[in-house]
Amino acid sequence: MAWSTCGGCAKTQADLSTLLLNKPFGVLSQFTPEEGSRWRCLSDFVDMPQVYAAGRLDADSEGLLILTSNGRLQQRLTDPRFGHWRSYWAQVEGTPNTDQLQQLRDGVVVQGRRTLPAKARWLQGQDEPQLPERTPPIRYRAAIPTSWLQLSLTEGRNRQVRRMTAAVGLPTLRLVRCCIDLMDNGPPLDLTGLQPGTWRAVTSAEQERLNRLISSSSIAGSRRGGHRRG
Questions:
Q1: CATH number at residue 95
Q2: In 3-state terms, what secondary structure has residue 163?
Q3: pTM for the whole thing?
C-alpha cells in the first residue's frame, strides 16, 4: 500500500482522499499545466492521484483549496444552491470608508449583475492577517496607503472579489482565501498551520462533518425529486 507523510504523520492514500492546500500565487487550480502558460499547476505541490479541486482560485490568488477524490463532496461544495460562505483577505489600494464597506455588503453591479449580499469589514491593527511576503511582491505606490479587508461571499463568479473592490474604488493588490464555512455550526475549514504550497489531510472530525454534509445534500435532493413533475 502506498503511503504519504504530512506534518510528521504517516497516512494511507485512503486517508488522504480529502486534503486542504494553501495554494500559492502563480498556481493554476488544476493538475495539468497549460501549454505555453507561465503558471505552475497543483501537481507541483500535491502528488496524490485522483484528487481534484472543489472550487477554484485564479492563478494570481492564494489560499485555501479543498482537494478531494469524492465527486459527491466536490458537487456539494460547489453547488451554488447551498451557498457556503467563503471568506477572503483582500489587500487593497486606499483606505475604506463606511460607504464603501456598506456597498460591498449590499451588493455592487459587476458585469451587469448585482452581487448577492456579502459580509465586509476592515481589518486593522492586530486583526490584519499575518502572512509571509508574496513572491513576487505586490506593487506599492508611496503616496497611496494599502488596507486589508475581509470579505465573505456565498457566490463565486469569475474574479468577483477583485471586481467588487474595484467597483467601490479599492483595487485589490493581493487576494487570499482564508476559510470555507461548511454551514453546519462547526468551525470553518481554514489555513491554520498551512504555509503557502503545503497541504494536510482533513482530520477524522473534519471527515465526519464532510460525510454529514454529503448525507444532508442527498436527503435534500431526494425530497426535491419527490416533488418533481414528470
A1: 3.30.70.1560
A2: helix
A3: 0.87
Tally the domains of the chain. Answer: 2
Query: Is 124 domain-assigned?
Result: yes
Same domain, 109 and 133: yes
**Three-state SS annotation for 47-60:** CCCCCEECCCCCCC
17 alpha carbon, distance to own chain's centre: 18
**Residue 72: all three cell numbers together:** 459527491
Q: Which residues form the domain of 218?
A: 1-83+188-223
Beta bridge partners of 65: 21
184 is catalytic: no
Containing 109, the helix (H) or strand (E) segment is strand 109-110
**pLDDT tens-digit readout, 43-98:** 999 998 889 999 999 999 999 999 999 999 999 999 888 889 999 999 999 999 99
Question: Is 127 among the domain residues?
Answer: yes
Q: What is the mean pLDDT of the chain?
A: 89
Confidence of residue 161 (pLDDT cuts 50, 70, 90): very high
Per annotation, catalytic residue among 58, 79, 106, 184: 58
Mean pLDDT of the region 112-136: 96
229 in a structural domain? no
Rounded-to-integer distance, Cα 25 and Cα 182, Å? 25
**Together in a domain, 7 and 37:** yes
Confidence of residue 8 (pLDDT cuts 50, 70, 90): very low
